[in-house]
Amino acid sequence: MVPKSFRYFKVYKPYGVLSQFTDDAGRRTISSLFKFPKDVYPAGRLDLDSEGLLFLTNDKPLTDFLLNPKYKHEREYYVQVEGVPKENDLEKLRKGVYIQGEKTLPAKVKIIDEPKFEPRVPPIRERKNIPASWISITLYEGRNRQVRRMTASIGFPTLRLVRVRIKNILLKNTKPGSVIELTKDEITGLRFL
Known about the structure:
- By secondary structure, this protein is an alpha+beta fold.
- 17% of the residues lie in helices and 28% in strands.
- A hairpin with an 8-residue loop joins strand 2 (41-42) and strand 3 (51-57).
């Protein structure tokens, strides 16, 4: 049973928007997307230059559950990288790589077709003589700039990063800047391992 006072939102955070409500430097924040209730906060974050799914709620026990690394909740990212990784490159990410002196947990990684996202503003820099490709990376931890550091560690810098899933919550068919309240089924799915 979900108390009526609890609110749950999924947000498609656009590129160049901070995952917070205020910024001393005057940069754009998620408060520019929607008038959220005063007690609702992001459960996790995305960097300024990352896009995609952000979950906000005032359900503190659920936030604590989702952010606790011991539960290893899945977070899936679609990542455009410079170059075309081979299977042995992806296998390194699957086994875990060292970033900032610590090994990452094993990840699920595969090459994917180019997703049908709206073009990013500003556009991704492209080099005519270096191809780009897309991979899906599913992580079970959330270290600072982890995906970018992981792809760089195997020689394929991240060009664009979009989080598409947190556990059972999907970004699918939403547009940058959209804010949607979750259904009861989606909320129930978040509560279980």
